[in-house]
Design brief:
The protein has helices spanning 18-21, 32-35, 47-50, 71-78, 91-99, 142-150, 153-160; strands spanning 4-11, 56-59, 83-86, 103-106, 119-123, 127-130, 133-136. The protein has a 7-stranded mixed β-sheet with strand order 4-3-2-1-5-6-7, covered by helices on one side. The protein contains 7 helices and 7 strands, in the order βαααβαβαββββαα. The protein is 28% helix and 20% strand. α6 (142-150) crosses α7. The protein has one domain (4-139): Alpha-Beta Barrel (Aconitase, domain 4). The two termini are 26 Å apart. By secondary structure, it is of the alpha/beta class.
Length: 165
């Protein structure tokens, strides 16, 4: 059985860097939950308050570029975003996202046809469906999927070593 879900789309552009995802001035907050209302504020101050659990971000190329701050994918996940679909991801952001249990999907065509507010369906490691058309996705290897399903690298290692409750 494949993992599948659907969600409302929020569209962002190319080169969404970690300073846009969470500006430096909010990193001093004590918890990710306290930082989350400021996500994307340099670009769209209202966005964090509009996102609902299960929503999906669709973006252009080079999503997550900039600094290596680990809070960026943590905050996206804390907002309830189910996955980010982008033409491409910055490599360090990609690994930070996986390590924090955030699903990232590379697809170079969806961004050009989707409109904010649309709903897309995702069949993990298979395809994305939008308006009756299927778009292929780059599959993630099983070891990375295990990390995502566990909720992040620490949880996956605890589970692997029999330390999960």
């Amino acid at each position: 059985m494949k993992d599948s879900f659907s969600g409302k789309v929020w569209v962002l552009g190319d080169d969404i860097d970690t300073d846009i995802i969470i500006p430096t001035e909010y990193l001093a907050r004590k918890t990710v939950k306290e930082m989350a209302p400021y996500a994307f504020s340099p670009l769209r101050p209202e966005l964090a308050g509009q996102i609902e659990a299960g929503d999906i971000i669709v973006a252009g190329k080079n999503f997550g570029c900039g600094s290596s701050r680990e809070q960026a994918p943590e905050i996206i996940k804390a907002l309830g975003i189910r996955c980010v679909i982008a033409k491409s991801f910055a490599r360090i952001f990609f690994r930070n996202a996986i390590n924090n249990g955030l699903l990232l999907i590379e697809n170079d065509r969806l961004y050009d046809v989707v409109t904010e507010g649309d709903t897309v369906e995702v069949e993990v490691n298979s395809e994305i469906r939008h308006n009756g058309k299927a778009y292929p996705m780059v599959s993630l290897p099983q070891n990375l999927m295990d990390i995502i399903k566990a909720g992040g690298l620490v949880k996956a290692m605890r589970r692997l070593n029999g330390l999960e409750d």
